[in-house]
Design a protein that fits this description.
Structural class of chain A: mainly beta
Radius of gyration of chain A: 14 Å
Distance between the termini of chain A: 38 Å
Largest interface: A-B, 26 and 25 residues
Low-confidence stretches of chain A: none
Helix content of chain B: under 10%
Strand content of chain B: over 45%
Number of helices of chain A: 0
Number of helices of chain B: 0
Order of helices and strands of chain B: EEEEEEEEEEE
Radius of gyration of chain B: 13 Å
Order of helices and strands of chain A: EEEEEEEEEEE
Number of strands of chain A: 11
Mean pLDDT of chain B: 95
Helix content of chain A: under 10%
Oligomer: heterodimer
Structural class of chain B: mainly beta
């Protein structure tokens, strides 16, 4: 079965510091990968998605970037954190375009980031 | 992108009651999903349902794509059903647009 991991679970960082959040998926090949942010007030916002190694699509211009160095690894980064970067960051995966049921998304446990 | 609106925003039920959550979307979709977020933040996929009807235990969902809405039914609610229910839709497949959710509290 497929599993998705995220770390760290929680993180407190000062303003201006760098950020690296990691997401890995097991049990599947060539998944589509996604980064979402959930701010206070419940809504989820798609930040980035990737359909393959090195292929990143950005949905929202911001202080963050994403990379996919390996098939099942997705990294969210920032060079200098802002207060507004605080939130709950969720990674998700779905099957590749050639699979059967393509679009069902499965979420990781998330990382709670507090920027002070 | 597609606009997704959910109602009601908040709902309080007694254990055993039934409820219907609604999701309206602004355009045709090829991807519509319902999720449950538990109090610890974990998002669980409930249904992938761009059209038609599905059932899973006490939960069922119906999407009427031509009228641009989806309904999530919860029957015989339990305290473990508490949390936030999200509807998310897309017409590109990839970029899911989430509604603001329905916060459900089931009391004993």
């Amino acid at each position: 079965s497929q599993t998705i991991h995220q770390w760290p679970a929680t993180l407190v960082q000062p303003v201006g510091s760098p950020l690296s959040l990691e997401c890995t998926v097991e049990g599947t090949s060539n998944p589509n990968l996604y980064w979402y942010r959930q701010a206070a007030g419940r809504g989820l916002q798609l930040l980035f998605y990737s359909v393959g190694i090195g292929q990143i699509s950005s949905e929202v211009p911001q202080n963050l970037s994403a990379s996919r160095p390996q098939d099942r690894q997705f990294i969210l980064s920032s060079k200098k954190l802002l207060l507004s970067d605080s939130g709950f960051y969720l990674c998700a995966w779905s099957g590749a375009a050639t699979a059967g049921t393509v679009w069902t998304q499965y979420f990781g446990p998330g990382t709670r980031l507090l920027v002070l | 992108g597609i606009q997704v609106e959910q109602s009601p925003p908040d709902l309080i039920l007694q254990e055993g009651a039934n409820s219907t959550l609604r999701c309206n979307f602004s355009d045709s979709v090829n991807n519509l999903q319902w999720f449950h977020q538990n109090p610890w933040g974990q998002l669980i996929n409930l249904f992938y349902i761009p059209s038609g009807t599905k059932q899973n235990g006490r939960l069922s969902a119906t999407t009427v794509a031509t009228e641009r809405y989806s309904l999530l039914y919860i029957s015989s609610s339990q305290t473990t059903d508490s949390g936030v229910y999200f509807c998310a839709a897309s017409n590109s497949g990839y970029a899911l647009n989430f509604g603001k959710g329905t916060s459900l509290l089931v009391t004993p």
